[in-house]
TrEMBL record:
CDD domains per UniProt: GRX_GRXh_1_2_like
Name of this protein: Glutaredoxin domain-containing protein
Family: Belongs to the glutaredoxin family. CPYC subfamily.
Signal peptide stretch: none
One Gene Ontology molecular-function label: glutathione disulfide oxidoreductase activity
Domain Glutaredoxin, residue spans: 53-115
Any one biological process term the GO annotation gives: cellular response to oxidative stress
One Gene Ontology CC term in the entry: cytoplasm
Function: Has a glutathione-disulfide oxidoreductase activity in the presence of NADPH and glutathione reductase. Reduces low molecular weight disulfides and proteins.
Keywords: Disulfide bond, Electron transport, Redox-active center, Transport
């Protein structure tokens, strides 16, 4: 006895419509594209963890100039955020206050670790901590 499978084109069409409907539902209920956060907090975290050396500074600050000079003498190129030249600089300082307990500048980070200000940087250079963090010892 010979068995045959009958082919019904209308079943195939129904499956296609069903598949299209499922795809449409998935597209409608799929999560929307997530845009990168533009919050000051996200910006600060990104700067700290995306750069070997990050300095939150003000262009006119003598302590900030001293910190920049120290890195220049060490032949290191920090990523510098000049807060006084940004519209959201005060918001970034608020984030720094929450993060490290200070609003003052400069605030220096090396490989994600908070060093402190210019005086703290000088101490870190003298006792070799900075060189250890930079891997130059």
């Amino acid at each position: 006895m010979k068995t045959t499978t009958s082919y019904r084109p209308d079943n195939r069409c129904k499956l296609g419509v069903l598949a299209f409907g499922i795809m449409l539902l998935l597209m409608i209920h799929a999560p929307k594209k997530v845009s990168a956060s533009k919050s000051p907090s996200a910006f600060v975290q990104n700067v700290i963890y995306s750069n070997k050396i990050a300095i939150f500074s003000k262009s006119y600050c003598p302590y900030c100039r001293r910190a920049k000079r120290i890195f220049s003498e060490l032949k290191e190129q920090p990523y510098i955020v000049e807060l006084d030249l940004r519209d959201d600089g005060y918001k970034i300082q608020d984030v720094l206050l929450d993060l490290v307990g200070r609003r003052t500048v400069p605030q220096i980070f090396v490989n994600g670790k908070h060093i402190g200000g210019a005086d703290d940087l000088e101490v870190a250079v003298r006792n070799g901590v900075l060189q250890d963090l930079l891997g130059t010892k």
